[in-house]
DNA sequence: CGCCATGATTAACTTACGTCA
DNA sequence: GATGACGTAAGTTAATCATGG
């Protein structure tokens, strides 16, 4: 499919003009949540993203189908703590806190977004056959922009965004979760491509060195020939790691990947869901 | 043209785990 | 240290859409 190809092309546009990391660090290691927060809020790699999005919104938008039906009452009740494990707020514990106030605000937002809601759901009988809603182009755009600024939301931001977009806070929350997952997946693809290139380069270098060893062995067996040849290899210190490096004609480093111009990419990625087209 | 099968995308969900009070 | 609340990542499910035959 065309969209897919576009995506991959974007994904694999490896670090042209993008600062590379000094050494390879898989970016998808599971971090403790707080370090993740810091990492994210410092805006390191996220700032590198180019948020322009492709098919998803243009799809629904261009076809003029507003699939973004407002949530049903059933969903709203879910958000109030009926079923969702992530957003359940215990009303039993008596301690009133800021958090509880926020939960109430969320419930309020629920009701608000539900009040204008549709009644097309089949009864809302609690069975909650999940109805998938498509976000409108505008909603996706705002979400993307917000994600660009910070890819996690605190409860207040979540509420504000939900109000602004006329969505349930839970929807905003889920959108950000999914968006982070997609971002990570993309970065994994980039990392994977980078490692593949490294591997290819190392394989080539290894092959070359083996060949050289063979030649040297052959020469050792015929010393009179050896006398008439230039030394095929000189040993120098690699400036990067201060080890003895093989320096044949081209390279004076023991980092063949670097010598071959392979640099680790750092997220030249465009988003997937609903952004601005470029 | 409509219909169906198939694959891609993504909203919504579940589970597991880490952190904090 | 045990516990509960909470947030997030990872994985899954299912709705929706595009495309090709």
UniProtKB/TrEMBL annotation:
CDD domains, sorted: homeodomain
One annotated GO molecular function: DNA-binding transcription factor activity, RNA polymerase II-specific
Gene3D superfamilies reported in the protein's UniProt record: Homeodomain-like
Annotated region of DNA binding: 128-187
Keywords: DNA-binding, Homeobox, Nucleus, Transcription, Transcription regulation
Pfam families associated with the record: HALZ, HD-ZIP_N, Homeodomain
Homeobox domain mapped to chain residues: 126-186
Chain spans, region Disordered: 76-131, 255-278
InterPro entries, alphabetized: HD, HD-ZIP_Homeobox_LZ_Class_II, HD-ZIP_N, Homeobox_CS, Homeodomain-like_sf, Leu_zip_homeo
Biased composition (Low complexity): 83-93
Principal location listed in the UniProt entry: nucleus
GO CC terms: nucleus
Location within or outside the cell: Nucleus
Family listed: Belongs to the HD-ZIP homeobox family. Class II subfamily.
The protein's name: Homeobox-leucine zipper protein HAT3-like
Species of provenance: Cucurbita maxima (Pumpkin)
């Amino acid at each position: 499919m065309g969209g897919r190809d576009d995506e991959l092309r974007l994904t694999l546009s490896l670090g042209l003009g993008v600062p590379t990391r000094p050494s390879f660090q898989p970016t998808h290691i599971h971090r403790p949540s707080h370090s993740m927060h810091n990492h994210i809020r410092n805006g390191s790699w996220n700032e590198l993203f180019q948020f322009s999005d492709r098919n998803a919104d243009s799809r629904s938008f261009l076809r003029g189908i507003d699939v973004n039906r407002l949530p049903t009452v059933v969903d709203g009740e879910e958000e109030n703590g009926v079923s969702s494990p992530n957003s359940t707020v215990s009303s039993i514990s008596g301690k009133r806190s800021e958090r509880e106030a926020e939960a109430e605000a969320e419930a309020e937002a629920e009701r608000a977004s539900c009040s204008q809601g549709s009644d097309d759901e089949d009864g809302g009988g609690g069975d909650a056959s999940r109805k998938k809603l498509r976000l409108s182009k505008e909603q996706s755009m705002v979400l993307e922009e917000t994600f660009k600024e910070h890819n996690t939301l605190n409860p207040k931001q979540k509420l504000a965004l939900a109000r602004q977009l006329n969505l349930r806070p839970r929807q905003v929350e889920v959108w950000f979760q999914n968006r982070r997952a997609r971002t990570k997946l993309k970065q994994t693809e980039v990392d994977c491509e980078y490692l593949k290139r490294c591997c290819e380069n190392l394989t080539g270098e290894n092959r070359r060195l083996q060949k050289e060893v063979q030649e040297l062995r052959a020469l050792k067996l015929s010393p009179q020939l050896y006398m008439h040849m230039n030394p095929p290899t000189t040993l120098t210190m690699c400036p990067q790691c201060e080890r003895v490096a093989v320096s044949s004609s081209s390279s004076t480093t023991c980092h063949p990947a670097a010598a071959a111009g392979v640099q680790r990419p750092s997220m030249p990625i465009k988003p997937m869901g609903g952004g601005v087209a470029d």
